[in-house]
Amino acid sequence: MKRKMAGGSALLRGIIGTALFIGLWQVGTSLDSWTGVSLPIVAQLPPPSSVLDAFLPLIRSHGFWSSAYLSFVRVFWGFMAAMVIGIPFGLLMAVNRTAKAICFPVFEILRPIPPLAWVPAAIIFWPAPELSITFVTFLGAFFTVVINTVGGAEQIDRRFLLAAQSMGADKRTIFRRVLLPATLPSIATGAVVGMGITWQVVVAAEMISGGGQGATTGGGGGLGFLIWNSYLGGAIPKVVVGMIVLGVLGYASSTIVRIMSTKLMPWNRAI
Length: 271
What we know:
By secondary structure, the protein is mainly α. It has helices spanning about 1-35, 50-60, 60-95, 95-110, 120-125, 130-155, 160-165, 170-210, 215, 225-230, 235-265. Helices cover about 80% and strands about 0% of the residues.
């Protein structure tokens, strides 16, 4: 009961905060016409009413939904590949000193390279535009997932491992019953952060690569391509609409990852 009340209170505060943000946005963009005093940067934005006028026709267009679907698919597969490859790779480096000594220096050299710097190489590596965009999206989450996995495993109190060994647990049991559960919170954190990064990367990759296959087949080139085309056409309200949709999709995706992480860690719900 208390949890439901807390959830309802958080939802109410979220609605109030969103309403206040929209109100301040409207005031900031309309202040020039009301008082003749314009606020820097804010005055250049379209007001919420203009964004709403652009949003209603946009959601009725097939291209908008195709673009949102394409971006979602690219994020989904890039994120899933990062989890499937990144988690075992991070655990391997955490439990095997030889593997870490060999792999970690190369990993640390590649990690600071921005994912967008890989776009030209990805276009060369992968023959299909979709694969190149998905690969860059994968890189956006991969390094975050790996570094959180390694850090979480290495921060486990060594006394837990020694206690399990003293009770006769073999290496497989220690990994399954001690190491992996203790690392799950760090993996979950890396997953949530990685999901947010994938949305940032996929939009920029779609802008740079021209939208990929969807732009050439007439099915929309992703939200990044939609935003870039709207900017080139001077349709700034559509640009803001695309940004808002990205924010909503990113928030929803991160929320789903958090919920799934909670399901995997039932002990955290008792805290």
